[in-house]
Amino acid sequence: MNNITRKRIEIAAKLIIGLGIIIFLVVYVDPKKIAETFAKADYILLSLAVILLPFNLFFQFTKWKILLKRYFNIEDDRSIWLSIFYGISGGIFTPMKSGEYLARALSLKEVKVIDIVIATAVDKFIPIFFVVTIGGSFFIIFLKELLSFSTTVTILLIVVYLVVVIVPLMLLLFDSDISNKLRAKLKSIKFLTKLIEKISFIRSIDKKTLIQLIGVSLVYHLTFTTQMAFLLSAFSGDFEFMKFFFVANLIIFTQIVIPPIALGELGVREGAAVYYLQSMGYSSAVGFNAAFSLFTINLLIPSIVGLLLLFRRN
Questions:
Q1: Following DSSP, what letter does each residue of 20-69 receive, concatenated?
Q2: What is the dihedral of CA 75, 80, 81, 83, to 10 degrees?
Q3: Which residue stretches of the chain have pLDDT < 70?
Q4: How high is the pLDDT of residue 9?
Q5: What is the pLDDT of residue 131?
Q6: What is the model's pTM?
Q7: pLDDT, position 94
Q8: For residue 10, what pLDDT is reported?
Q9: What whole-number distance in Å separates Cα of residue 223 and Cα of residue 205?
Q10: Distance separating alpha carbons of residues 159 and 117, to the nearest angstrom
Q11: Distances (CA, A) of 76 to 107, 118, 224, 310
């Protein structure tokens, strides 16, 4: 792709992101509703959730920097931060945050867009692993209470679930005769070919880099689930951190299992929060307000910052 073509694509992408966010803010975001929602919360617990936003962003930046440094030799913190903010801005108004994959490339001119898309897929994949394993295990515990499973059955189901999730990943990611044969067979299935190609990117990551990514991704997961736990406590008036941390993981897990097609992930997260909180005897407003607040803190605020940076750049 020559410089002129890339420049035209960048200009078009910036216009789309800018217009998309403006439309999203006008149509989907009601400042009065946000103010009324925050007014109902315990300000100390709400403040703790807001304070964790810089940590949330820092861990996203750190994950992204590890990948960019390892594969594209990019160490410029400014370009990496811009990539993160542009990505959030590009993702908030697109279904399943798909725009983030392209928007991250805007500040990284020296790398092909397709390479950034693949790297972003890897960056997203590792945290999802923790959502699926931790959240899925918690969901089985939730079913135990809902369907009156015995403790033995619950433990057995969790073990089986983790085996079903982890073993296929190990076969796909690690080199062995069995793994190579399995990948060859799966590649014959068309819709799995692209997925295997994306996952295969992880196989090229050296052990040190992979350990770093796993470590940062785990802390990142704990950061936003802790934010959600604080928000649930803030709106319920009942500070039971472990209970709400459990619920927070259930909500995020449901959000992954049922991919949101609405803009900014609105809908699934709020619906899941309402369901789980009601099942535990809390008002539906507690779940909705907490989920909406998490959206405002972690997505809406950074997306506006990204939009301002985009305008400032131009």
A1: HHHHHHHHH--HHHHHHHHHTS-HHHHHHHHHHHHHHHHHHHHHHHHHHH
A2: 170
A3: 1-31, 33, 171-204, 259-267, 313-314
A4: 58
A5: 93
A6: 0.83
A7: 74
A8: 58
A9: 25
A10: 34
A11: 10, 20, 26, 18
Q: What is the mean pLDDT of the chain?
A: 81
Q: Which of 106, 119, 134, 146 is nearest to 13 (CA)?
A: 106
Task: Report how far residue 168's alpha carbon sits from residue 195's, in angstroms, rounded to the nearest whole number.
Answer: 13
Burial, 26: exposed, middle or buried (Cβ in 10 Å; 0-12, 13-18, 19+)? exposed
DSSP 262: S
Rounded CA-CA distance 85/88 in Å is 5
**DSSP states along 64-79:** HHHHHHHHH----HHH
* Closest residue by Cα to residue 296 from 24, 77, 81: 24
Q: How far is CA 91 from CA 118, 166, 194, 263, 273, in A?
A: 16, 28, 21, 9, 22
User: Does the CA dihedral 221-139-144-153 come out positive or negative?
Assistant: negative
Cα 304 from chain centre: 18
What 73-76 contacts at long range (C-beta under 8 Å, 24+ apart), as own/partner pairs, is 74/108, 74/110, 74/111
Instruction: Work out the number of other CB atoms within 10 angstroms of the CB of residue 281.
Output: 6
| pLDDT recorded at residue 118 | 84
Instruction: State the pLDDT at residue 125.
Output: 84
